[in-house]
């Protein structure tokens, strides 16, 4: 098992790292189901008002833990971070998936599960459902970076759970916990009866400190690209505030987040219920989020080792760039050690203009501007893409 993991990680590390569509990520996104989302939301609703430290709050912690165990995670992968709020004990839940290449560097995916006044099906049963569905699908998916899925409590009392986690875990780990990015998902339920087709992506604009702002902007741009690659949603760029990423922000970490664009008026009231939100929006947000988490954590491309990536997988990973091109085409595929392939360019009538064997740089400077077909052949498999030559 360990051996194949190492080989698999190698397979990924050789993959061209640009942020382009990855079919293997999409295949996992296709495992998200609307009925799972609906079930998480209705079960969350049924757990009632989950005020920090209450019996319902504790029951929700247990419900979450049982969900992860049902998905196949082990007790050893689940930890709790306990603190006292108003003389009652309450617990953050942390699910850790260890990375294959950077086990000590973490992508944190978080959202609070506590609610106030109402059942909080949007705020934040929605984010909780997104996290559950992602954890279910990624259970057996190796990632280069470690992932921590964290369900925080105490958010509604002033980010108590996330602040406690930063104070008692992030900063007391020796050396200090190395965090690649914090991706917070809070209130992504949308509004019933409205067209919920846009997700707000949040970057750090806070100046205390400002040193982490540029990195947050960069990962938020990546997040927005993931939304467009893996969902039908449109993006709205905004700023981070008032949720569990802020204690991390203040600690100098790199943060990003999702928040609904059509903003519901129901949160923090007894009307924050299933019927007042849009479960289809949550489903669509989950697609975008799962694309982003796979991107941030560098999920494995196809579960195969470098020596047994079959030709069709090779072709799925084919990148031809730049496109449009003026003089030199670069070719990248999953397995950079691949020796036996051919590449040809034809015009629209099918006339062969260029043919090369086993070369990853193709000189097209002699072709005039126009549209052509590029065909890659690996063993008995072929893939043709359109290329544009522009002088
Ligand atoms: Zn919230």
Q: Strand order of the main beta sheet, please?
A: 1-2-4-3-5-8-6-7
The string of secondary-structure elements, in order, is HHHHEEEHEHEEHEHEHHEEEEEEE
Which residues sit in consecutive blocks of at least 5 with pLDDT less than 50? Answer: 1-17
Which compounds are bound in this model?
zinc ion
Q: What class do helices, strands and sheet pairing give?
A: alpha/beta
Question: What is the residue-mean pLDDT, rounded to a whole number?
Answer: 91
Using the coordinates shown, work out and report the CATH topology of the largest domain. Aminopeptidase
CATH class of the largest domain: Alpha Beta
Number of helical regions? 10
Radius of gyration: 23 Å
Distance between the termini: 50 Å
- How can the largest sheet be summarized? 8 strands, mixed
Characterization of this structure:
The protein is of the alpha/beta class. The chain has two domains: 2-297, Aminopeptidase, CATH 3.40.630.10; 311-389, Immunoglobulin-like (Sandwich), CATH 2.60.40. The chain has helices at residues 2-13, 23-29, 34-46, 55-71, 125-138, 160-170, 213-230, 246-250, 279-297, 311-316; strands spanning 78-85, 88-97, 102-112, 145-152, 178-185, 198-203, 234-239, 255-260, 319-321, 328-332, 341-346, 352-357, 361-363, 370-378, 381-389. It has an eight-stranded mixed β-sheet with strand order 1-2-4-3-5-8-6-7, sandwiched between helices. A four-stranded antiparallel β-sheet has the order 12-11-14-15. Helix 3 packs across helix 5 and helix 5 crosses helix 9. The model is unreliable at 1-17 (pLDDT under 50). Zinc ion is lined by residues 112, 123-124, 155, 186-187, 243.
């Amino acid at each position: 098992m360990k051996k194949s993991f190492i080989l698999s990680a190698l397979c990924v590390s050789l993959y061209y790292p640009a942020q382009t569509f990855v079919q293997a990520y999409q295949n996992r996104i296709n495992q998200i189901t609307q009925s799972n989302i609906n079930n998480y939301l209705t079960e969350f609703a049924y757990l009632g008002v989950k005020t920090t430290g209450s019996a319902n709050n504790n029951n929700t912690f247990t419900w979450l833990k049982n969900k992860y165990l049902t998905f196949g995670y082990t007790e050893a992968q689940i930890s709790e971070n306990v603190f006292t709020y108003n003389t009652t004990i309450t617990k953050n839940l942390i699910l850790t998936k260890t990375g294959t290449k950077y086990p000590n560097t973490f992508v944190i995916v978080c959202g609070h599960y506590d609610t106030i006044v109402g059942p909080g099906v949007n705020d934040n049963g929605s984010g909780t459902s997104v996290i559950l569905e992602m954890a279910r699908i990624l259970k057996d998916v190796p990632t280069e970076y470690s992932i921590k899925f964290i369900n925080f409590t105490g958010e509604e009392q002033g980010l108590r759970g996330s602040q406690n986690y930063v104070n008692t875990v992030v900063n007391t780990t020796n050396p200090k916990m190395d965090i690649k990015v914090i991706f917070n998902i809070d209130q992504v339920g949308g509004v019933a009866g409205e067209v919920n087709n846009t997700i707000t992506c949040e970057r750090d604009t806070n100046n205390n400190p400002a040193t982490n702002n540029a990195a947050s902007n960069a990962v938020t741009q990546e997040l927005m690209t993931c939304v467009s690659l893996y969902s039908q949603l449109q993006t709205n760029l905004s700023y981070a505030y008032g949720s569990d990423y802020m204690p991390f922000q203040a600690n100098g970490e790199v943060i990003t987040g999702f928040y609904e664009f059509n903003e519901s008026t129901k949160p923090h009231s007894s009307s924050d219920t299933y019927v007042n939100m849009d479960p289809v929006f949550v489903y669509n947000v989950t697609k975008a989020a799962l694309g982003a988490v796979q991107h941030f954590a560098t999920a494995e491309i196809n579960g195969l080792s470098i020596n047994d990536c079959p030709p069709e997988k090779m072709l799925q990973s084919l990148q031809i760039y730049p496109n449009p091109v003026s003089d030199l085409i670069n070719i990248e595929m999953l397995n950079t050690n691949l020796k036996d392939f051919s590449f040809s360019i034809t015009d629209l009538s099918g006339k062969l203009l260029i043919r090369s064997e086993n070369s990853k740089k193709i000189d097209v400077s002699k072709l005039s501007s126009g549209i052509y077909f590029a065909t890659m052949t690996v063993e008995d498999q072929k893939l043709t893409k359109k290329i544009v030559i522009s002088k």
